[in-house]
Amino acid sequence: MDSLSQIALGAAVGIAAMGRRTAPWKAALWGAVAGTLPDLDVFIDHGDPISNMVLHRAETHAPFWLTLFSLPFAAAVARLQGEWHQWRRWWLAMWLALVTHPLLDGMTVYGTQLGLPFTDHPYGVGSVFIIDPLYTLPLLVGSIWALRANGRGLAEGQGRRRGEMANLAGLLLSTAYLGWGVVAQAHVAGIARQALAAQGIAAERVLVTPTAFNSLLWRVVAIESGSGSGPGAHYLEGFRSLLDAGSAMQIDRFDRGSAIAAELQGIEGVRRIQAFSHGFWTAWEHEGRVGIADLRMGQEPYYTFRFAVAERRSPLVPLPVPEQVGSRPDLPRALAWLWRRALGEPLPPPR
Question: Which long-range contacts (CB under 8 A, 24 or more apart) does 347-350 make?
Fold first, then answer.
């Protein structure tokens, strides 16, 4: 999730875990710090854009390593606050703020390596968009209410109780929203599979994720079943709003670039993207540049993680370092379409 959401979650967890054992602002501050720390891995340069992508949300997002780190971190916080007598409670608060960060990230589609050091599998439920105000707002309101209710001192018990209840309500609402996303995703996935079958499309795998900033409009990506051991030649994209009438879906087919991908198999970065994307990739060629894109994040033809990895010569020449060439849509036009399509208007996507 985005940094603001992680800060808000960490602060809310800190307030809830510490209760009346310390000043709410201290619990919120250190909870927000703990909620931010895992994302500092973005400052680590692994040598090229593809490595930076697939190694983000790795060790710093693994609950095993975060649990080990939480002990000295909580001890340092308790010392700094002069509250060593309750370092165990500080440990619980900091541990919760640290581990809820990757658990929340795991609800997005990106891929979080929660099982390290035992497995590097990138887990991603894909039931919430990376920025969703309806998730973040309850956390912000609850934690700010708790801070304001106690701003005049610790002795005002009634105001503090109300603040604690508001903070807890924010945590419960945001968690319930995550649950709603899982239910809505399963509902849309069922409709999508029926629509694919009705159109005679054999899908090797199907991905359903929410579009930007909402959980009403969902994007469906499917990879056509291949022949023999080869990959499917096409991928498909469609959109489904929870406000759509009927069960019909418009599904568009696109060339996956399987022949190009075969030429790129000797390139390590290509194999990494294919594995990290769980098979939701497309190979492309444009103006002598050849590359690969992760189909999970973005929509046709705009993908966030799109990389040039080679040049078209005779034979194909890999680039010394892959280059990220992700493209962005016309934002005002895209947002206008998103809003109208989410409300159930049958509009074609902006290609």
Answer: 348/250, 349/237, 349/239, 349/252, 349/299, 349/300
**272 & 175 share domain:** no
Domain extent at residue 235: 199-342
**74-128: per-residue pLDDT in tens?**
999 999 999 999 999 999 999 999 999 999 999 999 999 999 999 999 999 999 9
Residues 69, 168, single domain; the answer is: yes
Q: In the beta sheet, which residues pair with residue 238?
A: 220, 251
* CB-CB contact of 249 with 282 (8 Å): no
In this prediction, residue 231 carries a pLDDT of 61
* Cα–Cα dist 247/236, whole Å: 17
CB 178 within 8 Å of CB 127: yes
Give the integer Cα–Cα distance in Å for 27 and 163. Answer: 13
* Number of domains composing the chain: 2
Chosen domain end from 153, 181, 209: 181
Cβ 206 vs Cβ 193: under 8 Å: yes
Position 230 scores a pLDDT of: 58
- Kind and range of the H or E element at 190? helix 157-198
Q: Report d(CA 81, CA 89) in Å as an integer.
A: 13
Would you tell me how many other CB atoms lie within 10 Å of the CB of residue 250?
Answer: 13
Q: Is 285 strand, coil or helix?
A: strand
Render 89-112 in DSSP notation, one character per residue. HHHHHHHHHHHHHHHHHTTSSS-B
pTM of the model: 0.94
For range 221-243, the mean pLDDT:
84
